[in-house]
């Protein structure tokens, strides 16, 4: 009996047999009165017939029918059954299958998926969540976070620092998915065409489709070249421009910033971050450089198919689980690693020196400055009016320690760093925004050079 791995991450659904890919596609489906097309075939029609395309059926798996008239006869479960039937054509007849599922799928959705697979006569031996399959070694004295890309978001999975691979918590960042990133790149390319040639490829559905058909190749080209030639042949005319590769990074910088802000809310000042990224994430222009410039951390880039190959540990694995089919943890199969923290870049140069609150500036020093409605007279303080809702008497403090600027949350209500709630103590940087209460009171971290 052959053992196969099916990764149902909607941005790169893959079936792997004996270490090679036998099926690979994305979670797109096209439906009209005459035809159903899946994956690449659906993508070829996406920009021309957008109302006939669905791409959220994996992300929002349920048996509730769509409200749209074009899909009123279908539910996400129906569409997944169509997709599974296509995948089944690539399965061997004597298969034993492990399914790798993304963090956005819950237990109820897995149960529904299992029922759909059974109806399609697909036998599943085990389920394992992708970050568990991907993590094959322990990083000693480190906090490991796994990043993966999906159509409708990027997942951030904080791994437990145990003797096996298991997840502490997973989060989804909605505006960092492949569809949102592709939209930003398409709009950037369109704006350059308009500027240089007065040609807007997004103005016509057909030229829009040509742009999206070639977008993946241009993005990959931006990783390895200083410039990218972008060429669109439309209406018997060839339109060609050159775009500097850094423009692909700039186009999605605001999306990446959402990721960085989320990670900064996860890591405390005492954590040593190890950020493990899937091969899909690593292929995003500028993502590695922005992570390296934002954290004193080790970046681990997974090889192609490393997640799927990590799932082979499910075979004949007798680990106990809440559900015998769902492997919540797997043994490490690589030796532990202790990262030399002294070799990594320090970010003390980005240290703020003052707090800006309203029109007042307050100096940050080794002596903590406490913010709240009734801070103790023993400390330096910024006092907020006592009737401000959602603000504690001593809400948070800011101080310098070991040449690092640190915020310590003291509240019941929560303190938000760049709109993300922090945990305990976190390192601050110039330009950070701290917010508390409702209506919000905002504090900006600045340096002497800003005033």
Give a description of the structure.
It contains 11 helices and 29 strands. Helix 2 packs across helix 3. The longest helix has 20 residues, at 178-197. The model is unreliable at 318-324 (pLDDT under 50). The protein has helices at residues 40-43, 76-88, 107-119, 130-134, 178-197, 205-224, 246-251, 253-266, 279-282, 287-294, 306-310, and strands at residues 2-7, 13-17, 20-25, 29-31, 36-38, 53-54, 95-101, 124-129, 143-150, 153-159, 164-165, 167-173, 227-234, 237-244, 273-277, 298-301, 326-327, 330-331, 354-357, 360-363, 369-372, 380-383, 396-401, 404-409, 416-417, 420-421, 425-427, 433-436, 441-446. It has a domain at 348-450: Sandwich (Tumour Suppressor Smad4). The chain has a 6-stranded mixed beta sheet with strand order 3-2-1-7-8-17. It has a 6-stranded antiparallel beta sheet with strand order 20-19-29-28-25-26, covered by helices on one side. It has a 5-stranded mixed beta sheet with strand order 12-10-9-15-16. With 451 residues, the chain is α+β, with helices and mostly antiparallel strands. Helices cover 25% and strands 30% of the residues.
Largest sheet: 6 strands, mixed
Arrangement of strands in the largest sheet: 3-2-1-7-8-17
| Number of helices, where a helix is a run of at least 4 consecutive DSSP H or I residues | 11
Would you count the extended β strands for me? 29
The CATH architecture designation of the domain at 348-450 is Sandwich
CATH class of the domain at 348-450: Mainly Beta
Low-pLDDT segments: 318-324
3D shape? globular
Query: How big a fraction of the residues is strand?
Result: 25-35%
The CATH topology label of the domain at 348-450 is Tumour Suppressor Smad4
Note the gap between the termini: 71 Å
Specify the structural class: alpha+beta
The overall pLDDT average reads 92
